[in-house]
Hints:
repressor; DNA-binding
Amino acid sequence: MECLVDLGWSGTSTTEVARRAGVSRGAQQHHYPTKMVLVAAALEHLLEAQRLAYETAFAALPPERRDVSGALDLLWEVFRGRPAKALTELAVAARTDDELRPLCRDLNERILQVILEVFERLFPENTLPPDFVPTMLRGVFAMFVGLSIQNALDDDADGHQAAVLRQVKDVARLIVPGPGTPPSAPPERPDRTS
């Protein structure tokens, strides 16, 4: 993943990964005979490591910050981190790489599934309709991907990403109230019969 962030997809090679890992090329090829096998294993490891790191960081927050606002702050930190940059690099490269595309085709869905599982664990008593949560999280995910790409280019020099995050947290607090806060009415589902 470090190679992907530092060198991009085209600059990442199994030789460079072996060099950085301090293992012989033969040892690397024994465990991961191709670049695709290596990247697939790294993806699995990265997704699980990110989930664990996120849940650990959330649990370490002061009790008054263990709310949807704190959760979004942590998620934004994840999206700005090096592992997320590696995933973005893979997703962008897969657009034009026929060999990489099958490996990354369901990457967004897998990340969204992790986000959904974590959300349900962190906020089990939310009052949102079950079909609303995946769509809401899909929107947050898409927005954070876009914001993180912009952040990689300008490091939020003008504060635009921070302004968007503040507004998203304001709306999220209305939808997913913190512990001890009475929930507002869940969003109305559109009448599909009319």
